[in-house]
Each structure stands twice: as C-alpha cells, then as structure tokens.
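Support reply, case 0932

Customer input (verbatim):
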Amino acid sequence: MTLKGGVHGFGNVGQSMTRAINRENRFGEDARIVAVCNRGKEKRDLAEREYGLKAYERLDDLLAQGLDFLLILSQSHVHKDVALKCVQARVPYLIEKPIALTVADALQIVQAT
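Our regenerated output:
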C-alpha cells in the first residue's frame, strides 16, 4: 500500500521534499505526495504543471482528499493552525522547524496531538 501525502506550503522546502519523495524515491514506493496547499496561485500552478499534483488554496480542501499524512512546510506563523486542523481531521503530520513561534503555541500543538 502506498501512503498518500500532502504538502502545506509549496516553496523551496515543499518542492525539495516532494522531489525527494516522488522523484528520488527516498521512501521507495511506500509514500507519494499527491496534493499540495499553497496560498499563492503561482506555486499551485507549478505543483500541477511540473509535479502533476492536485493543488488547493484552502487547507480544508487538501485535508478532504483522504491523505495518510501531511508535511507542514509553510511559514512558521501558520504551523499551529495547520497542525490543529490536522488533529481535528485525524491526519498525521510532520512540522518543519520550528514547531511554532512561541512556547505556548508549541504546547497547544503537543497537547492537542
């Protein structure tokens, strides 16, 4: 079974992780990035055109895709909100550093998870 993953934030890190997983087969055939969420249309268009991914502007639309995991690679100030939505949707996630901008936000993520 191949795990279906998503990426929140399709900047340099999001593209690099997608290449590592989908093109370089860093996890063999066990995982694939299938969709991304990015607020900027230019990066969404790039994801569709260059990577063959579904691209969404809204996180809720991405989470509705039945993902097995989400990589949170967006700007640090939105990490907490994205992680909490993942918890609500029961989607496992990984957050790039830092987990949050404040200790209070980090604790909220940890407690919710």
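We compared this against your earlier run and they match. Two observations from our side: Residues 12-23 form the longest helix (12 residues). The first strand starts at residue 3 and ends at 8. Please reopen the case if you see a mismatch on your end.
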